[in-house]
Amino acid sequence: MLQKARLIVSFIAYVFKRIGELAWESIENRYRQIQFASQPPLTDHGEMRNIVVVGASYAGYHAARVIASSLPPNSPYRVVIIEPHSHFHFTWVLPRFCVVEQEHKAFIPYGPYLKGAPEGRVRWVHERVARVDRDSVWLEKSHDQIPYAFLVIASGAGAAEGLPSRVAADTKAEGMALLKDMQRNIKGAQHLVVVGGGAAGVELAADAKQKYPEKHVTLVHSRKAVMHRFGPELQAAALKGLENLGVVTILQERSASGSIVEGQITLQSGKRLQCDFLVNCTGQSPSSSFMAGLAPEAILPTGTIRVRPTLQIQDEKLPNVYVCGDVAAVGIDNPNARSAMRQGAVVGLNVVRAATGGSPTKTYKPFWGEGVIKLTLGLDKSISHVSDGKTELWWQSKERNLDLMSALGWRHLGAKPFDDDDDESEK
Ligand SMILES: Cc1cc2nc3c(=O)[nH]c(=O)nc-3n(C[C@H](O)[C@H](O)[C@H](O)COP(=O)(O)OP(=O)(O)OC[C@H]3O[C@@H](n4cnc5c(N)ncnc54)[C@H](O)[C@@H]3O)c2cc1C
User: Fold this and answer.
1) Do residues 59 and 157 share a domain?
2) Rounded percentage of the chain residues whose pLDDT exceeds 70
3) Over the chain, what is the mean pLDDT?
């Protein structure tokens, strides 16, 4: 009981500390703008040096914003964002929109989050980085070479199977088509099998069973408990939520091949399950292979990249290379968007300091409070949970928004919900 009380107090303290930090960042930013107001803007863009940001999701997009809005107007640096997606992929809502037909809300237009950066400060390149060397990044399709003075790696994680954890498409139209296919397949199945009992698998199985109660929905998970990376109280609550909806959960089992043969799949134990559609929710891995040529020793067997507390890569020969978000090895068990953004801010400020003649002194230390999770258990229920590794705190809520308050995600990134010029151009 005492431990739980301590957890509540330190979580509240964390929330206030974060509010304080954000207010301080905003004051610092305002102060910089006032200082910069007397400086003439750079007019000759010929000699611009590049701060290259690889990946524009929670970590990279935020780092780009901090850098673009904090550099002095006459700075000879510009931000080059290399990101293959045409839109920001809102990962949190993907399992829901695999079942519920509101897929357009998962793709947030890029751009407005960088509003306020001086003209010419930011350049977008919608491509994928294939490899990196000491001075340049090389692009996959065009084979173009882009030199850098500073490099920010924010390439996150990928999922081999794509949905429901990531969207394996670069344009919004292709991404929406993949989500619609998934909705159609789930709707058409009588025996749905979901493999992987992490958050994406639990949420998708629960949503599908609540939307289509007549279907047989089975969740297969290789561990002793669903949500195995979280505490036992959340594990038990998630299992109970699944059972209440009528999802059959099979633990300590794996699908043998992942393929459906004559309407069945075979598990590793030899047991067979009826199945006419299977959703694989396993296997997210950090996207770092393109760094293997530059810093092989910094890449851990898990694929994450070792960093110093300043989030510079753990390689003294590369002081101008920074890493943030899910691809950074910062010691977080459950990577999440809040810590990715906080790392993006640390990297952004350190790059600005280094680019203006100072030293990168901001540091990042993980805090358990950032791992707070809201797990949906069907279309109208959720459990919020936080843990410091010793004790857990969780509470249930009724959910009224079928789209999981997507509008907040859009507004947070400066976009008007659900207004997208791209929709007009595609008509
Ligand atoms: C289904 C699901 C639900 C989630 N729900 C929550 C939640 O409710 N709350 C929460 O806090 N977190 C949640 N998370 C976790 C959160 O989404 C991640 O922690 C976050 O997306 C990490 O952000 P990131 O910027 O590090 O990387 P990512 O989001 O993985 O993005 C990486 C970016 O880099 C780009 N990229 C990759 N390789 C290259 C390359 N070679 N060249 C150029 N660009 C490249 C990609 O296109 C992508 O845009 C959820 C995750 C999933 C999968």
Assistant:
1) yes
2) 97
3) 94
Where in the sequence is the domain holding 106, given as residue range(s)?
2-37+47-161+284-369
Whether the per-residue pLDDT at 424 is higher than 80: the answer is no
Alpha carbon distance 119, 43 (integer Å): 10
Q: Is the pLDDT of residue 33 over 80?
A: no
- Is it the case that residue 309 has pLDDT exceeding 70? yes
Tell me, in angstroms, the distance from the centre of ligand 1 to residue 199's CA: 14
Strands (E), 39-121: 49-54, 77-82, 87-89, 107-109
| Confidence at residue 16, expressed as pLDDT on a 0 to 100 scale | 87
**Is 268 within a domain?**
yes
Given this model, what pLDDT does residue 42 score?
A: 64
Within 6 A (CB) of ligand 1 lie 54-60, 82-85, 91-92, 94-95, 128-129, 154-157, 164-165, 199-200, 287, 290, 325-326, 335-338, 340, 374
Atom of ligand 1 nearest to the CA of 170: 47
Answer yes or no: do 333 and 348 share one domain.
yes
Q: How far apart are CA 385 and CA 336, in angstroms?
A: 13
**Number of folded domains that form the chain:** 2
What would you measure as the largest C-alpha separation in the chain, in angstroms? Answer: 74
pLDDT at residue 425 in the model: 60
Helix, coil or strand: residue 212: coil
From the CA of 344, give the closest atom in ligand 1: 25
**Residue 272, in any domain of the structure:** yes
Name which residue sits closest to atom 27 of ligand 1, judged by CA. Answer: 156
Cα 277 from Cα 258, distance rounded (Å): 10
104 and 213, same domain (yes or no): no
Confirm whether 290 is domain-assigned. Answer: yes
Q: How many other CB atoms sit within 10 Å of the CB of residue 15?
A: 12
Same domain, 220 and 259: yes
The domain spanning residue 362 has which CATH number? 3.50.50.60
User: Which protein residue's CA is at the shortest distance from atom 21 of ligand 1?
Assistant: 337
272 and 385 inside one domain: yes
| Res 23: pLDDT | 87
CA 261 / ligand 1 centre spacing (Å) = 33
Give pLDDT tens digits for 229-260.
Answer: 999 999 999 999 999 999 999 999 999 988 99
**115 CA distance to ligand 1 centroid (A)?**
22
